[in-house]
Amino acid sequence: MxxxxxxxxxxxxxxxxxxDEIRRSGGRLTSPTRTVVAILVDSDRHLTADDLIxxxxxxxxxxxxxxxxxxxxxxxxxxxxxxxxxxxxxxxYHLRExxxxxxxxxxxxxxxxxxxxxxxxxxxxxxxxxxxxxxxxHAALLGRCARCAARDTTTRF
Length: 157
What we know:
Layout: H1 8-24, H2 31-42, E1 47-48, H3 49-59, H4 65-77, E2 81-84, E3 92-95, E4 101-105, E5 111-114, H5 120-130, E6 141-143, H6 146-151
Parallel strand pairs: 4-6
Antiparallel strand pairs: 1-3, 2-3, 4-5
Helix pairs in contact: 1-2, 2-3, 3-4
């Protein structure tokens, strides 16, 4: 079951805003689309496609996994969701409006959300030195969490 993130009124307002965005882009609000949007709005987790498929089937039994994949692809194309390559596991999804960068531990798989501002100086330095703009939301930064690093003090990077 997905953990609730917002008040019911806030969740309904967020869903309406996303539904309007889907309509403006020429999309249809099918039952599977409404279900996926509701799951994403209700969740405070990093949801994989498998998580979304399981929760969608719980809420609206009989939705084909391929349908969930198509809904996710469309929501990503119109900028409603972001997909993040975790490096050590499956891609996960969250609403773009709630976007942030991610740190993923190579050892235990723990995911830590960090505000974009943490990477501002790095982004500026990369841009100045290489005329390159980083996109910190598309892929997670990989490394080791403090707990895993403490277990193996011989390796720093």
